[in-house]
């Protein structure tokens, strides 16, 4: 199963839409969002590409109730949780968290996959048997290049997607 990974979208709607299109083209069946959507209208971009989204809130989500309401009334399969959120997906234990500093090392070690954001830095690391993935910043505000990732849950392989300006600023 392939899943899309996003974090730190910060209202950058054109970048969100292009990253979602790219992930769907890669065969993604679900998107995990590691927080910092920012405003409820950012969720509309997810709705234009019909893929279920599971996410957690980040530090810069100024209107959590508005985000919850937008997710509930959009007709999308969008679920939003407080960070951190632990669940099982296709037999794999997953921890979805905005900031790794929010969780104890033992919590990280008890999951096969940890998806996080906050630093705006795309990376894949390992701690023992746990794969930690930060898809980078979907907004591109800090690096100038919006990014996301696609994770193959079976192989734990990660493909990072980075957009240049011509690809999403049309």
Task: Give your account of this protein's structure.
It contains five helices and eleven strands; from the N terminus they run E-H-E-H-E-H-E-E-E-H-E-E-E-E-E-H. The protein is of the alpha/beta class. The chain has one domain (2-168): Metallo-dependent phosphatases (Purple Acid Phosphatase, chain A, domain 2), CATH 3.60.21.10. It has a six-stranded mixed β-sheet. The radius of gyration is 14 Å and the shape is globular. The mean pLDDT is 90.
Brief overview, please?
With 170 residues, the protein is an alpha/beta fold. Helices cover 22% and strands 32% of the residues.
Key words describing this protein structure:
single chain; 170 residues; alpha/beta; Purple Acid Phosphatase, chain A, domain 2; 6-stranded mixed sheet; 5-stranded mixed sheet; 5 helices; 11 strands; 22% helix; globular
How many independent structural domains? 1
Oligomer: single chain
Strand line-up in the sheet with most strands: 4-3-2-1-10-11
What is the count of DSSP helices, taking H or I runs of 4+ residues?
5
Averaged pLDDT, please?
90
Weakly predicted, low-confidence segments: none
How would the global form be characterised? globular
Q: Characterize the main sheet.
A: 6 strands, mixed
Strand-helix topology:
Layout: E1 2-6, H1 13-25, E2 30-33, H2 42-47, E3 53-56, H3 64-73, E4 78-81, E5 85-89, E6 92-97, H4 105-109, E7 113-116, E8 123-127, E9 130-134, E10 147-152, E11 157-162, H5 165-168
Parallel strand pairs: 1-2, 2-3, 3-4, 6-7, 7-9
Antiparallel strand pairs: 1-10, 5-6, 8-9, 10-11
